[in-house]
UniProtKB/TrEMBL annotation:
Pfam families: Methyltransf_25 (PF13649). Residues 45-139 form the Methyltransferase domain. GO terms for molecular function: methyltransferase activity. This is SAM-dependent methyltransferase.
Amino acid sequence: MNTKKTNYYSNLAALVYNESKPPGTSIDGDIEFYTNELIKRNGLVLEAGVGNGRMAIPLLRKGISIFALDNSSEMLEIYNRNLKKYNMQSDSMHADLKDFKVNIKFETIIMPNGSFCLIDRNDILNVLNNFKNHLEDNGKVYIDLIFPTSFKPGNVHEFDFLIDDDYVKIKNKSISMNWIEQKTYTELEYKKNTTTEIQHFSLWWYGVEEFKNILMNSGFKDIHIIENYNNIKNLNLKTLTFIFGK
Ligand SMILES: C[S@@+](CC[C@H](N)C(=O)[O-])C[C@H]1O[C@@H](n2cnc3c(N)ncnc32)[C@H](O)[C@@H]1O
């Protein structure tokens, strides 16, 4: 059995992510939103937590330059495979957001699809500070925050995917909602043949004023908030995109 640290995307978790959300899969219109925003801006974009390139590959195809960073070597391997498949190029880096160092200042840093909620609350100030250090003076950061509006402790959801001629069976167990620490805990079990992988999955959430204060105390300014990627047809609040500079 393969069990790594909280929120880590190991082999099966990364394969399933790629199978369920291949490059170009828009989540609630996020790819369209980011394409429209980034096409107006020049310069290099850091995608923090690039995953399989679900968002990065369509952005690259629109001529937007992406520098990809992820702490999962398994995800980056899939990203590099997808780059080849779509005949695209981007630099990538295997590193953790809380302490990565690269001698580049980015025009834009994006962290779509709630990836920021995967960061342990104790690490977010280091991550934000690191973003500030790697941002051009006139640069902008985009962070999506998601809210656990449909999380129900006790729910178990089972599904499977046929990947490379073998079924990967997934059991998604919603375990607990911690209102004090503002986090949900889900256990994901992936089984393929004799291999079992467990992903301990915690998502932290933040109040709007709370997150604004965190950003301001971290030295950021000009904070704007977009609801559900401007999609007015989506009546329930699911995603807030915080856009800010330094
Ligand atoms: C939910 S996936 C999103 C992938 C991609 N951005 C997308 O929109 O489809 C989150 C990604 O963030 C990466 N990640 C999570 N915590 C990280 C950290 N502390 N440092 C670097 N990458 C991280 C994970 O490995 C994973 O690939």
